Amino acid sequence: MSTSTSTGAGTAAPARTYDAYSAPLWQRLLLTRETAVIALTAAVILYSIANVPNFDGPLTLKFLLQDIAPILLIALPMTLVIITGEIDLSVASIMGLSSVLLGVLHENGMSVPAAAMLALLAGLACGALNGFLIAYVGLPSLAVTIGTLALFRGIAVGLLGTKAITDFTEKWTDLATDTIGETQVPLVMIPFAVLAVGFVVLLHFSTFGRGVYDIGLNDEAAHFTGVDVARTKLVLFVLSGVVSALAGIYFTLRFGSARGDNATGYELQVIAAVLLGGVSIFGGRGRLHGVLAGVVLIGVISSALRLESVTVNVTNIIVGLLLVASVILPNVLAATSSRFSRKPAAPPEPRPHQDAAPAGVGTTKGSDS
């Protein structure tokens, strides 16, 4: 006697639903980490305006945007790098190296634009070195970029020593601190806006960007779906190097000083802003608007604390705590959510009906039933 486990014509198959994987549009737009960061940033700004002396002054916006401009710039490529599951700790040392090159070349008679172009090429070379070692040699990005952090910073200090170069053309230093018209928005926001639009299109509206997310989720699977994993990582590290060099040039001209230790510690602020903005440290998740909100949040906190005469060390402690919280909190929330949303196990399906054998009567081994 045989029984069939397939669904018969008279038996309705259970409907397959995806309630656990779908949500209304408003939930997908509003109930996200990025929206939470934007809301928190707005709350901190409103609190600072109401409670911090001079925070609502006419020059606060100018100095705030000038302070966070290098972090905003570097956060753009860093977001893509971390989404792939990698990290670049050498960005601040590339800033320092580009600063020194700009100063040394200008001191030896080269114009600022020409020296800046060579500094950008140096940043490209630094990023290419990182990308080659990570993408093609297969070394871990954490180890590589810690090593190149020391390498690039050592070259910068070796070229210039402990002195500073300050004889930059006034036209260029004024340009770095000037604003757009009568507003308090610095001119540096124009190249930042252009780069931001480019990176948004690259990440969110291109096949290259989809490949970036695929690599972060599973680089081996991404390879078999046609994504050139090595080339993608190389391109991202090159972009990181070039944009870091650009940030270093702006940093140098804004303060009118080229030093080997310029931008020391900036990598912490960049990574903290990226992770705080919703990018997963494990890769595969993140959006640029959340990252930009994270940068502004850290900048507002730093500016408010500075106006309250809080030391830089305390500010660094707060930024470090935000970095730790941005890594731990998503995992805690995910574990809590999965625990409370876990449905009870469904009861086992009944076995196919069989006539029960009379008590005491067994079946004969090998006999037909």
TrEMBL record:
Keywords: Cell inner membrane, Cell membrane, Membrane, Transmembrane, Transmembrane helix, Transport. It holds the Pfam family BPD_transp_2. The chain crosses the membrane at residues 35-52, 64-83, 117-136, 142-165, 185-205, 234-253, 265-282, 288-307, 314-333. It is found in: Cell membrane. The keyword Metal-binding does not apply. Residues 340-369 are annotated as: Disordered. InterPro entries: ABC_transp_permease (IPR001851). It is a multi-pass membrane protein. PANTHER family: ABC TRANSPORTER PERMEASE PROTEIN YPHD-RELATED-RELATED (PTHR32196), AUTOINDUCER 2 IMPORT SYSTEM PERMEASE PROTEIN LSRD (PTHR32196:SF71). This is Autoinducer 2 import system permease protein LsrD. It comes from Nocardioides renjunii. The lineage of its organism: Bacteria, Bacillati, Actinomycetota, Actinomycetes, Propionibacteriales.
